[in-house]
Amino acid sequence: FFFFFFFFFFFIRFTSSVGTNVLGNKCFMFKGKKSDIKGNWSYARSWCKDQGGELAVIDDQYENDFVSSYLKDLELPTWIGLSDLLVENQYAWSDGVSAVLYTNWNDKEPNNAGGDEGCVSMHASRFFHGTWNDTKSVMLQKKKLHLQSKA
To answer: Among 8, 23, 89, 143, which is least packed by CB within 10 angstroms?
Structure first.
């Protein structure tokens, strides 16, 4: 048995503040420390919404590379705003507005292993860096990390 660690990130459109990284019309804020942040996908989304944002929507390879470049030294998965929680096998962004224009699934993903993987994380390991995996929305991890992004 091992622990998964997660960062999450959110975006707020058209605003930026100290500690954010701007890409086009989005500002990404990376938030979290593996020693003190806990949270599943729903917690990550709620936290982002409390900050005035949303879990990140990634629209193309350029944005994916931008986000994953900040994770390269962490080697920890990161929650993004994609899930199939509303309709099984129909992935949608958690902002409820953005179309799914781009995906970067790892090989053989999404696979819905165990029949209950509905939320998406971005890999940060050197072998699968930047690729996506469907993951259980509520897992037994003790600690998860989170990032936030603003657009």
So the answer is: 89
